[in-house]
């Protein structure tokens, strides 16, 4: 996978990353998506105070999940689905659901972003991730992530979306103009930009 890592590192936009990942074989495509998920999960656990995972642990978890996918429809898998609450809620048919997340390192004044777009069956159709060179806080990082995702949505002509973020402050900012009236202290993020980017959508919701 080192060759693919170098190729992805050389791409300049989320759209290019998504297009390249989707052009790969099913095995490589799933592994890359799972690596992104494993990296995101490790970052969340570290932020919550748990021990940092090594690179080897992140890779192992991604490969483990990928190997389990072919057996997801076995009887045991069906039983598990009945007894465990779902961790991801699918959108209605014909609507794309976008899960976004971001990280911010205040001391370094930088961060990272990522998003995954799925259909109502849970199939990943697009994904993107990248670094933020200058970002002052978590809200700013999450805002940049939403903008990146909305730009990809617009580029691919997706008209009906639901965007899910774990930042309730961002959700409130998107549902009102309070943040736009406040002094700009968040890396020149203006929440009216979201209105412009989502203006061409037939249906949009921020959760």
UniProtKB/TrEMBL annotation:
Pfam families: RVT_3
Sequence ranges assigned to domain RNase H type-1 in this UniProt record: 99-180
Any one GO molecular-function label of the UniProt entry: RNA-DNA hybrid ribonuclease activity
Record-given protein name: RNase H type-1 domain-containing protein
Organism of this sequence: Panicum miliaceum (Proso millet)
Lineage: Eukaryota, Viridiplantae, Streptophyta, Embryophyta, Tracheophyta
């Amino acid at each position: 996978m080192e060759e693919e890592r170098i190729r992805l590192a050389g791409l300049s936009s989320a759209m290019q990353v998504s297009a390249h990942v989707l052009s790969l074989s099913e095995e490589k495509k799933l592994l890359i998506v799972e690596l992104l998920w494993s990296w995101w999960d490790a970052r969340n656990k570290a932020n919550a105070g748990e021990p940092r995972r090594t690179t080897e642990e992140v890779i192992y978890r991604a490969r483990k999940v990928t190997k389990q996918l072919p057996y997801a429809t076995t009887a045991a898998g069906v039983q598990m689905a009945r007894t465990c609450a779902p961790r991801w809620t699918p959108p209605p048919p014909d609507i794309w659901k976008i899960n976004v997340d971001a990280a911010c390192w205040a001391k370094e004044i930088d961060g990272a972003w990522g998003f995954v777009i799925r259909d109502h069956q849970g199939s990943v159709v697009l994904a993107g991730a990248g670094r933020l060179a200058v970002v002052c806080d978590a809200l700013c990082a999450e805002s940049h992530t939403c903008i990146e995702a909305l730009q990809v949505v617009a580029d691919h002509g997706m008209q009906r979306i639901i965007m899910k973020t774990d930042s309730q402050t961002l959700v409130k900012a998107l549902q009102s103009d309070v943040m736009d009236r406040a002094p700009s202290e968040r890396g020149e993020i203006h929440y009216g930009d979201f209105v412009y980017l989502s203006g061409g959508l037939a249906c949009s919701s921020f959760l």
